[in-house]
Amino acid sequence: MSEITPKKVSAKTARAIEKLAQVTQELYQGKNYNITRLTTLKSLCQDPAAANHFVFYLAQQTQKRMAQKEAPSHLSPEKWRRHKALVREAVAHIKSYLANPTAQAKDNLRNLLYKIIQLQNTYQNQRGGAVRMIESRDTLLVENAIQCILSPAQSAFWGYHVGREYAERYHIYHGTGLMPESAPFLADIVNFWYHYYDMKQ
User: Fold this and answer.
1) 132: which residues sit within 8 A by CB, 6+ positions away?
2) DSSP string, 126-181
3) Of 171, 175, 167, which Cα lies nearest the Cα of 23?
4) By percentage, how much of the chain surpasses pLDDT 70?
5) pLDDT (tens digit, 9 = 90+) per residue, 37-90?
6) Contact 187, 178 (CB under 8 A)
7) Which of 36, 75, 143, 148 could form a disulfide with 158 if both were Cys (CB 3.0 to 4.6 A apart)?
8) Cα–Cα dist 18/82, whole Å
9) What is the dihedral angle through the alpha carbons of 110, 116, 120, 123, rounded to the nearest 10 degrees?
10) Rg of the chain over CA atoms, in angstroms?
11) C-beta separation of 41 from 159 below 8 A
């Protein structure tokens, strides 16, 4: 995040960030929350430039974690290498685009987005209709990050979904949502916004 020039923060934005910081502390203390607590991200990501830096940061963090993971049990080592390679390529292309948003750089991102979607393009018919089968939520997060950057008019929508993929966890008793296991991931989100607006923690 060192390349970001800190921006001035409004009172409303500061309150939104502090609200997320409070939730983070309560998660560390063992509390659980519905994922709707993250809707605050929609207001923080209304500015496409802010959203772009936010999703890029989470994509970077995700790529670093993926690089250290072994192949999950449901994927072959070869398929997992494909996931990691595409995510690594995506992070590099996002960085290049944000530094120099040319038409060619945007085309490169679009082409990469197509490849990532095709990597997880299997659907199964279930009771509610066709459901996309996701092999890696990490790869999905990076896919959504590219969607956010290519769709500035929908930056709030995609920024929220990237943050949700990053922090949401599952527990057999609590279902999906924000839970103690989410705390370090939500802390990453809060730290980004503190740094982006040069706020003291």
Assistant:
1) 120, 121, 122, 123
2) ETTEEEEE-S-HHHHHHHHHHHHHH-GGGHHHHHHHHHHHHH-EEETTTEEEB-GG
3) 167
4) 97
5) 999 999 999 999 999 999 999 999 999 999 999 999 999 999 999 999 999 999
6) no
7) 148
8) 38
9) 0
10) 17
11) yes
- pTM beyond 0.85: the answer is yes
Domain range summary for the chain, segments of one domain joined by +: 11-196
Give 4's contacts (C-beta < 8 A, 6+ positions apart). 53, 195, 196
Q: How far apart are CA 12 and CA 22, in angstroms?
A: 15
E strands, the chain, where?
122-126, 129-133, 169-171, 175-177
d(CA 181, CA 107): 37
- Rounded to an integer, what is the distance from CA 187 to the centroid of its chain? 13
Q: In whole angstroms, what is the distance from residue 35 CA to residue 56 CA? A: 21
Q: b/e for 55-90, b at 16 or more Cβ within 10 A? A: bbbbbbbbbeebeeeeeeeeeeeeebeebbebbebb
